[in-house]
């Protein structure tokens, strides 16, 4: 018996009356909301409108979920289509099984549609969302903890994960908590992307490419530790090959993009700057607090109007009037 370990949840779903609240789905939903919130802050800081990130996420998130599930099913078809398996389970996304690369690929298609409808460059939007996506992944990985899945090799380290009811027919025991390793690494990736973006003003998709490259580094380590069934090519897990290819592509993009399109976009959302100027104009017209109000400029009297006004001439005009008549 291990003296110190990370316990697994006894159940992965809580029933709120007739409504089941699954831990895996809850982590995904929380991750999406946090990503939209933080991505919106970064987008506004880049000069965009508040709310634009959420509008585009309406397209990106559903596409990403479908893409993530498709990647998982295509790369592990034996789980659903071999003899004795029920292919209907391929649609049970709440039971786990989302491939990040499929989510990014098809999610990018949805984001492109949303950006095109708003006249926004996809690369600028992706740069603003890059660290937010990493944070969403860090939160979403805890869904694997609820499902007791995707753990690593057996270990006796003090932070070993105690698996009691493994999914996929595994053996109960103590394993490397690869979900925790990846969750922590995603937070590191988010911090590094934010730092690099402030340091070098990354633009034209380079911040997002940096996120992909850094994520691949950590994902390669967790893939090496994982013991769940997976397809292999030349002795390596399929996902490990995918990680290596994506890392090379991301680095190439950063290098070539920096040469071809240095700097970052000056305008990320058409019209956003004009709205900010219009909102600031009335405040500027009010003047500084405590300043004396300016007197209205005198206007010339219209034809036939008494210059003295409707109340008649003042006292001095009354004294001067008679003398003028005597002359």
From TrEMBL:
A 1,2-diacyl-sn-glycero-3-phospho-(1'-sn-glycerol) binds at residue 141. The chain crosses the membrane at residues 23-40, 52-73, 93-115, 122-140, 179-196, 238-256. Residues 279-294 have a biased composition (Low complexity). Keywords: Cell membrane, Membrane, Transferase, Transmembrane, Transmembrane helix. It is a multi-pass membrane protein. Belongs to the Lgt family. This is Phosphatidylglycerol--prolipoprotein diacylglyceryl transferase. It comes from Streptomyces tremellae. The gene is lgt.
């Amino acid at each position: 018996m291990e003296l110190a370990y990370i316990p697994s949840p006894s159940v992965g779903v809580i029933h709120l009356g007739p409504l089941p609240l699954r831990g895996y789905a809850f982590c995904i939903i929380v991750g999406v909301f946090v990503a939209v919130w933080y991505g919106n802050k970064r987008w506004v800081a880049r000069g965009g409108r508040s709310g634009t990130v959420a509008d585009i996420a309406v397209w990106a998130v559903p596409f990403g979920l479908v893409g993530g599930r498709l990647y998982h099913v295509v790369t592990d078809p034996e789980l659903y289509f071999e003899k004795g398996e029920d292919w209907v389970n391929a649609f049970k996304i709440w039971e786990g099984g989302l491939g990040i690369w499929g989510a990014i690929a098809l999610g990018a298609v949805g984001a492109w549609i949303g950006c095109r409808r708003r006249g926004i460059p996809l690369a600028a939007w992706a740069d603003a969302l890059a660290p937010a996506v990493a944070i969403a992944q860090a939160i979403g990985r805890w869904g694997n903890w609820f499902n007791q899945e995707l753990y690593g090799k057996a270990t006796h380290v003090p932070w070993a994960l105690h698996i009691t009811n493994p999914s996929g027919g595994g053996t109960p025991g103590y394993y490397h908590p690869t979900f925790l390793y990846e969750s922590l690494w995603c937070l590191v990736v988010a911090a590094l992307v934010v730092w690099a973006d402030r340091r070098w003003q990354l633009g034209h998709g380079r911040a997002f490419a940096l996120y992909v490259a850094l994520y691949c580094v950590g994902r390669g380590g967790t893939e090496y530790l994982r013991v769940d069934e997976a397809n292999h090519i030349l002795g390596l897990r399929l996902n490990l090959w995918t990680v290596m290819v994506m890392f090379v592509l991301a680095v190439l993009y950063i290098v070539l993009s920096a040469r071809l399109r240095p700097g970052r976009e000056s305008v990320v959302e058409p019209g956003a700057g004009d709205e900010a100027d219009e909102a600031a104009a009335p405040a500027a017209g009010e003047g500084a607090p405590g300043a004396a109000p300016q007197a209205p400029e005198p206007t010339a009297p219209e034809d036939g109007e008494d210059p003295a006004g409707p109340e008649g001439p003042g006292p001095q005009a009354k004294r001067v009037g008679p003398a003028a008549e005597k002359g």
